[in-house]
Every structure is written in structure tokens, then in C-alpha cells.
Amino acid sequence: MTTLVIMGTFEVAPGKRDQVVPLLMAHRARCLKDEPGTLQFEVVLPRDEESKLLIYEVYENDEAFEVHRNGASIAQWREATAGLGVKVVATKCTPVE
């Protein structure tokens, strides 16, 4: 099975990034604690774009990502960020080894 990497860009409504970051970091902590197939989950803030966040996630395989995608933490994330104008664009990637 091939490791899966997710590269994601979050567009956030103007002035809402400071509200979204702690919610995303809580989601990150839950995923790393409760999802054995979630191997890495990094959050970075672009310095010149106040309305964006970027993520880099590594999953054991596609099945582990499906567990994540359909899990309790992402449902909690979606509920917590409803109304904050968060739009996500994610790209599934295969690491070059």
C-alpha cells in the first residue's frame, strides 16, 4: 500500500483566521491521537496571505484517509467552523521515494 499525502489550502473569510487556527489545531491533535493511520498533520500560516492556511497530512494509505474523512473529528471540525467562511481545496499526492 502506498502512503497518501494531502496538501490542502484553506480559504478563510476575512478576519476569521485567528478563530479558525485553534479549531484546526484541536482537530489536528484529535486526529494524531485517535486515528492510527494518520501519521503526520502539519498546519502552516502563509506570511503574506491573512485569509489562508495550509496543511500537509500524511496517511498510512488511502483507507486510513477514508477513516479520517468519515471520522468523528472531521465532523466536529465541520460543525465548529460552520459560518466562518472556510473553503478547502485538497490535493491527494503520492510521495516520491
From TrEMBL:
Highest taxon above the source species: Bacteria
Pfam families linked: ABM
Domain ABM: 4-93
Name of protein: ABM domain-containing protein
